[in-house]
Amino acid sequence: MTTTPDPHVVTPETSDKGFVPAVLLCFFLGSFGLHRFYLGKWVTGILMLVTFGAFGIWTLIDFVRLVVGSLKDKQDRPLRR
Which residues contact 46 (CB under 8 A, 6 or more apart)? Predict the structure, then answer.
């Protein structure tokens, strides 16, 4: 009997950070890099804060990467859906 894993359960392969909070932070406060701080990426969060998300370009790229699923947390784990 095979069971389907629950997508809400945190496994070692999945981040404890959620997809929805990261997307909302990026959409509303992405120019300040708050989604990067949330994901544990402090250095790039500070760079985004100083450059205002590289004048919005970096923020837009991060938003697309979050939606597609290629932006991961500091330990390079995919976000929990």
Answer: 33
Element (H, E) at 23: helix 19-29
Where in the chain are the domains? 19-68
Structure tokens at 41: 């990426």
Spatial distance between the Cα atoms of 36 and 49, rounded to a whole number of angstroms: 10
Tens digits of residue pLDDT in 16-71: 999 999 999 999 999 999 999 999 999 999 999 999 999 999 999 999 999 999 99
Q: What is the dihedral of CA 81, 11, 77, 54, to 10 degrees?
A: 40
53 contact partners, CB below 8 Å, separation of at least 6: 30, 31, 32, 33, 59, 62
Q: What is the pLDDT of residue 10?
A: 62
